[in-house]
Amino acid sequence: MPFIEHRYATGPTTATLLMLLCLTMAPGAWAQAPETPAPARLSDLWLDQPALPAEPGYAYYLRQQHRDTLPFQAMRLEEELRTVADRLAMAGQGHAASGVSAWRETLEAHQATDGRTPARADLAALLASPRHDPPLSSLAEVGHCEMPDWVELWSFDGVTRHSWTPDMGLQRLLRDQPRDHRHPAEAAWVVSPQSPPRRIGTSAWNAGDTPLVPGSRITLEVPIDDRAADWINQALPAYLSTRLPGEACTTLPLPDDHSQAAASS
User: Fold this and answer.
1) Could you tell me the pTM of the whole model?
2) Dihedrals phi, psi of 264, to nearest 5 degrees
3) Exposed e or buried b for every residue in 53-75, given b needs 16+ CB within 10 A?
4) How confident is the model at residue 8 (pLDDT cuts 50, 70, 90)?
5) SS3 1
6) Where are the domains of the chain?
């Protein structure tokens, strides 16, 4: 019978190698990596307060990116308002030109404050819509204001404040003004502390109405067919929505580790 040579593997088997590998691994190497904690958000800051604001609808926050851009928006508005005032004067609308010039002067005064990001900042709104709950690391300021007792009207008489009453509406406010303070504007923008700006007709053919809440700002549209005026009619309400919702306001301290994160964002 022919001789059959049997060859036996002399090296370690795959199973042996795996066993040795397991034995040499550091203890805990198979443990799951710890999860990165979720970033702290504005709702967390409200929940850490001993009490919520008495008027939650007048809470606000300011994103760092908005703090950096608001001064440039204001400067461009001032330039365009100067241009439009000159064109109104040349068109024979001297009273409207004077009012628009007063708007520009008021904007200069507004630059003394940082303003806010135009969004709901109260705890109920943040919990109802978590995707609108900003990380604290993105914020430059958080605070809340007392509910004011006025509404602010940007008319062709300049910028004036009027005592708020529970039954106040847009049409009533405008009817109480002399005709040349509002004519010939055909629409106004209502800027509420709690909602985005809304455009509402003010002439006989397109008149609408809406209740006014305390702290509302109302601006008439510039009544000339002009590219700069068209831009102002959109940009001014948007800028007014970044103003603080009141005057008696309290700023909340942000966490100590927040300032570095905000500066680097």
Assistant:
1) 0.83
2) -85, -10
3) bebbbbbbbbbbebbeebeebbe
4) very low
5) coil
6) 43-264
Read off the tokens for 180: 């040349």
Q: In what order do the strands lie in the sheet with 187-192?
A: 158-163, 150-155, 217-220, 187-192, 195-201
- In the structure, how many helices (H) and strands (E) does the chain have? 9, 8
Please give the radius of gyration of the chain, using alpha carbons only, rounded to the nearest integer. 31
Residue for token pair 């943040």: 126
Contacts of 212 (CB under 8 A, 6+ apart): 151, 164, 168, 169, 170, 173, 190, 192, 218
Residue 201 CB neighbour total at 10 angstroms: 16
* pLDDT greater than 80 at residue 22: no
Answer whether the bond into residue 223 is a cis peptide, omega within 30°: no
Q: Which backbone phi and psi does 58 adopt, to 5 degrees?
A: -110, 20
How much is the pLDDT for 185? 93
Beta-strand pair 59-63/139-145: antiparallel
What is the C-alpha separation between 32 and 38, in angstroms, rounded? Answer: 17
Q: Residue 74 to residues 106, 109, 250: CA-CA distances in angstroms?
A: 11, 10, 24
Q: Spell out the alpha helix ranges (H) of 53-93.
A: 64-90
- In whole angstroms, what is the distance from residue 240 CA to residue 262 CA? 24
Euclidean distance between CA atoms 16 and 10, whole angstroms: 12
Q: Edge-to-edge strand order for the sheet containing 59-63?
A: 59-63, 139-145, 249-251
Encoding tokens for residue 40? Answer: 């702290």
Residue 203 corresponds to which tokens in the numbers above?
């002439």
**How many angstroms separate the Cα of 120 from the Cα of each of 4, 115, 240, 250, 253?**
87, 14, 15, 17, 19
